[in-house]
Design goal:
heterodimer, A: 301 residues, mainly alpha, MetI-like fold, two-stranded antiparallel sheet, two-stranded antiparallel ribbon, 12 helices, 4 strands, globular, B: 473 residues, alpha/beta, D-Maltodextrin-Binding Protein, domain 2, 2 domains, six-stranded mixed beta sheet, 19 helices, 12 strands
Chain lengths: 301, 473
């Protein structure tokens, strides 16, 4: 009866090596089918002239040239950039503030957390229409409308996004705040740190991982925004240029790409595809840069 | 041990997710392919089925398909009219019950036809029957449309007025209904206010009546025009329909009927467009400053007798005639010389095209289905006069229309009035063009100054040239 008792490490390795593909296979296949393949195809299509995907015709980099020459694309780029930065700052500052107060042991914190989180459950299009009614209910008293002034459209969208996103970011911040070690806070108290010193020197460095995630999310959300933009203003008001073309003053990047794609000109589908690739590079680049930047400030416990 | 189980559970969840994904895809595919696979079975099975015919009959619906020759091919109709969806599903079912040919009708949501069509055409089972409704669409989709010249369905037409051809003269699509638009009038209310619809034969008469009714609205209990919202659900009544008067009279001046989008407009009739537009928004239930984001229900206002005039089209007849039986439609009177002889705006964007990429069996099945729709008494009656129906079908054996507004259009024509054709169908880059116009009109409504009207004119006239050039690109 000399039966070798398998050690748990060595005994598991062989089956894992043998059957690993079974475990990795499904997710790899799903990822390839759902992401990698469409992505590569998208890049290929941006180099084509096409109406339907199945009869795409390769034309090289002309689409990229047209995309960069398109004034509306550049306008929407800068508009989106400003929007993303403003919303990033506002959402995170407010979400952190709310989270901070809701971790101070106020009565009914749970109820507040739920209430603040709720707006996040409503879809973007619905939100856009609801808020356009709210804004117009107010603005119509002054005989104007959110569709008539670029600044109303801009701040309207900021308010909408804050309302929707603060609750979500708040949840992440609350989790971060609750993970700050009690001993550390106690030590700070004993050392005589003031409340603001504790906040800036102890709490914030400790919730840096949450800040990383939240800034990443709100930055990319700001750039990728589509539904709310479409439903709230759809680019209105336009500035009608003397030559008859128009600049959609509140049109963001994603909406610009969409509008380009469904224009009548069949060549424009390729241009829209090129814009989408540029858009991806931009969002991915910004996201990575921002990650690298905030990662440096994280403290490891 | 615990960790292993957790890992296993996770893998199970992932696998399930994947299977669910595949399953969904498969079921979608099979419903789309149902016709295709059945038709191939039909060919192989007929021989063996002959012997066991009784068994086949007992088998139910699916077996029935393979017995008749009609079971070859299937129909997939990508419908353009959301209001007709329910009716079409019913008609499709009727046809399947009668012949065993599977008919699938999918409706694109309002305003999304182009995008839905684009994605559907790329699928492995694309629509066999779809809509190519105007010149720009012909430009985009003509390559995918079968030439309908001399086909059975083309031979059933009683007019070729609604046919669309591409540059090479190929018959790309044929009208399955036509419509008219103008100003719907509640005749009884108009009489209560002291005016007769017969007397309104030009812009001055319309203006006098509308302004008087609006001034006495509180006393009368109703207003002149229904609300004129400029949101997406309503702005097309002005940027699409009312704008047509400008295009039409320009066509008349040039002595032609457009067959392609002209490169430029002259804008010669912009003042007439302005006059009628101003009349509508100034004398309405809702102030012009509140139109930008909409939220008013013009149809309900008209049905409830809150207003006399309603800028709309013949497809509204079914909806309004029940509440307002004594209603009719008058032309866009806008102050043009000789407009006493104006008729309604008649035309269509509803034109059938058969997918050239579909299999021959599917094309044949689609053609048979189309012919059946316009010849079968019951089906054509439902399609013509049913709720959400087409109003009229321009085919020899189709049912007679009971639509009062189309009857009004015919009366005008019979009186020798000129029919205003739908030049608006040639609007270049239509979504962008109209969006710019809506934005400019919103500014103008908020502050109706000459400067703001200039922006409307720029969007209307110069915007046309810009978009026409862009659409060519």
């Amino acid at each position: 009866m000399k039966k070798k008792k398998p050690s748990s490490g060595g005994g598991l390795r062989r089956p894992i090596q043998k059957w690993g593909w079974l475990f990795l296979g499904p997710i790899t296949a799903a990822f390839a089918l759902g992401f990698v393949w469409p992505f590569l195809q998208g890049i290929y299509l941006s180099l084509c002239k096409f109406r339907l995907i199945k009869d795409a015709q390769f034309i090289g980099f002309g689409n990229y040239l047209s995309a960069f020459q398109d004034a509306s694309f550049m306008h929407s780029f800068w508009y989106t950039a400003v929007f993303a930065i403003v919303s990033l700052v506002l959402i995170n500052v407010l979400a952190f503030t709310v989270a901070y107060f809701l971790t101070q042991g106020i009565r009914g914190s749970n109820l507040y957390r739920t209430v603040f989180f709720m707006p996040n459950l409503i879809g973007g299009i619905v939100l856009g229409y609801i808020w356009s009614m709210i804004f117009d209910g107010i603005l119509s008293r002054y005989s104007t409308s959110i569709l008539l002034e670029t600044k109303y459209g801009f701040w309207g969208l900021i308010i909408l996004m804050c309302w929707q996103q603060i609750g979500y970011m708040m949840i992440i911040y609350i989790a971060g705040l609750q993970a700050v070690p009690e001993e550390m806070l106690e030590a700070a108290r004993i050392d005589g740190a003031s409340k603001s010193q504790t906040l800036f020197k102890v709490t914030i460095p400790n919730v840096m991982p949450s800040i990383t995630i939240c800034t990443f999310l709100s930055l990319t959300n700001g750039f990728k925004l589509f539904d709310q933009n479409l439903a709230l203003t759809a680019g209105q008001p336009f500035v009608i240029q003397p030559d008859g073309s128009s600049i959609k003053t509140t049109e963001m990047l994603a909406l610009n790409i969409y509008n380009t794609f469904y224009g009548q000109n069949t060549a424009s589908k390729g241009v829209a595809q090129a814009k989408a690739v540029i858009f991806f590079v931009l969002v991915a680049g910004l996201g990575l840069a921002q990650l690298a930047f905030t990662r440096k400030r994280e403290v490891q416990q | 041990m615990k960790r292993k189980w957790t890992a296993l559970a996770l893998v199970a969840v992932m696998l399930l997710g994947l299977l669910a994904g595949c399953g969904g895809g498969n079921s979608g595919g099979s419903s789309g392919n149902a016709g295709g696979s059945n038709s191939s079975n039909a060919g192989g099975n007929t021989g063996s089925n002959d012997a066991s015919e009784p068994a086949g009959n007992n088998g139910g619906d699916t077996q029935q398909e393979s017995s008749g020759e009609a079971a070859k091919g299937s129909v997939y109709w990508l419908n353009f009219k959301p209001e007709a969806d329910e009716l079409l599903q019913e008609v499709a079912k009727m046809y399947t019950d009668e012949t065993g040919v599977p008919v699938k009708v999918t409706t694109a949501a309002s305003g999304t036809y182009e995008s839905t069509l684009t994605s559907e055409m790329d699928k492995s089972a694309p629509p066999t029957l779809f809509v190519i409704g105007n010149a720009p669409a012909v430009k985009t989709w003509a390559d995918y449309a079968l030439d309908l010249t001399g086909t059975p369905i083309a031979n059933e037409l009683n007019t070729d007025a609604y046919n669309l051809y591409d540059e090479s003269g190929k018959l790309v699509s044929i009208g399955y209904c036509y419509e008219c638009y103008g100003i719907i009038v509640n005749v009884d209310l108009l009489e209560t206010a002291g005016y007769k619809v017969e007397d309104i034969k030009n812009f001055d008469a319309l203006k006098t009546a509308a302004e008087d009714i609006h001034a006495r609205a509180a006393e009368l209990g109703f207003d002149a025009f229904t609300s004129n919202d400029m949101d997406d659900s309503s702005s097309w009544r002005y940027t699409g329909h009312m704008a047509n008067l400008e295009y039409y009279y320009e066509e008349q001046d040039a002595g032609t009927t457009w067959t392609a989008t002209p490169d430029t407009l002259t804008g010669a009739y912009m003042d007439n467009f302005k006059a009628l537009y101003d009349l509508c928004v100034e004398n309405s239930t809702v102030a012009r400053t509140e139109l930008a984001t909409g939220g008013h229900d013009a149809e309900a206002e008209f049905k409830d007798g809150k207003a006399v005039f309603f800028v709309q089209g013949s497809w509204e007849y079914g909806a309004v005639s029940e509440s307002v039986p004594n209603c009719t439609m008058i032309p866009y009177y806008c102050g043009v010389d000789g407009e006493e002889k104006a008729g309604l705006n008649c035309g269509t964007e509803n034109c059938w095209a058969i997918n050239a990429m579909a299999s021959e069996d599917d094309q044949k099945a689609t053609m048979d289905f189309m012919v059946w729709m316009v010849t079968d008494p019951e089906a054509s009656e439902m399609l013509t006069n049913g709720v959400g129906g087409f109003g009229v079908m321009p085919y020899k054996s189709a049912a007679t229309s009971t639509n009062g507004f189309l009857a009004a259009a015919n009366d005008y024509a019979a009186d020798g009035c000129y029919v205003m054709d739908w030049a608006t169908n040639y609007q270049p880059n239509v979504n962008d063009y109209r969006a710019a116009l809506v934005s400019a009109l919103n500014q103008y409504n908020a502050d109706p100054t000459d400067a703001n009207w200039e922006a409307v004119r720029t969007a209307f006239v110069d915007g046309w040239a810009t978009q026409a050039a862009a659409a060519k690109g």
